[in-house]
Amino acid sequence: MKQVPQNRRKRRIFAVVALNVHSGQRKLAGIVRYLNDRQPSDEEKWDIDILHGKDAVTDTAMRRAVREGVSGIIQLNYPSPETMRLVARSGIPCVVETSGQESLKSKVESQKSKVESRKSKVKSRKSKVEGRKSKVENRLSHVACRMSTPSSSNVVRIICDARELAREAAQNLIVRQSFASFGFVGTPEGESWSSERGAFFKEALAERGHECAVFKSRRAGLGSWLASLPRPAAICAANDSTAREVANAALDKGLRIPDDIAVLGIDDDPKFCLSASPAISSVVQDFESCGYQAAEALQRLMDGDTTGPSLLRYGARGVSIRESTLSSSPHADFVPRALDWIDANACSYIGAADVARALGVSRQMLDLRFRELLRTTVHAVLRERRLEEVKLLLSTTNMTVGRITEQCGFTSAGHLKNLFRRTFGCSMRDWRKAGK
What we know:
The chain is an alpha/beta fold. Helices cover 52% and strands 14% of the residues. It starts with 10 loop residues before the first strand and ends with a helix.
């Protein structure tokens, strides 16, 4: 068998991306977009192996990577410290998504704030407080130094900018309505990234002169806490699953959403946002940018360029406005009805004109309100709903692509295949394999 010259082989890449969740799908789409934009020569093309699981880059996998001549690794699934050590020791170029350095800094800043408060209240213990303050400042300096420096020259880290996500959430709520109160609800487990988003949300509101209540009690008291807030109230949740939990707790207490309580999530995960009733508005994390930047950085490392940044960031890409925050606009009355009608009829062979006709409004008025409130078009929403149904059928049935095309309101199987790959970064066949 004829040997392929080493310099003509594709670059072998290990990619650890969770394709069973929305964020992983968008990150993979970002990697694919980078490769399509770059259009590399044959010897620079990537041959990607997608590994599954948070710690898929195990000791065994690393030995295999070295043995098989893997050129680079992209790990976008928060690896364990042991995985990080394996990657660094291997010497293989790698881009790794980790928790933000802000989380550690936030903890230190919180301790520093407590020290300052105690200093003002207990003057008799000034010397002790000053000592603790000094220790905290030293720790902050140490953390900043450690987190800003890569653990190895072959590793680039990428993090989510929690401050940007929180500011986007605060800005969106502030401009939509004159709320009587604001609140933040973190995850039940109270992870550091959840606390971080809450701290930055509170900070962004304070800069605009607003106070923010933070729910810290047991989940059983969530509904009562929501009912105690001055109304109308605006609640930001740490993520979309928590936002749905907030909405359910509010409804159980007889509160109206969004008239009494407006609810905004973070991540824009359709699994939680679109399954809730009413549907949840959410800050859109730019997961695709994460994948794109990671691929770009890995290419740089594989080319031997270590002069680029060792820490990359991605943040927000706007807000998907849905019913949970919609009624603050005087023009929003028929938009929720349009979304409901689209949900019920999207997989029929309908278009924007049919939606407008069903609501008794003009096509121009419908398009205008969708752009104003949702920053999208009726056509785009119809396409989104249909693609969600396509993903569901691929994961749960053995229907042929042709049958799925008809079932979901598409007119051409070829068009659907191309649209699916452009949107999710993989083929319908690969999606079905990953889902099963």
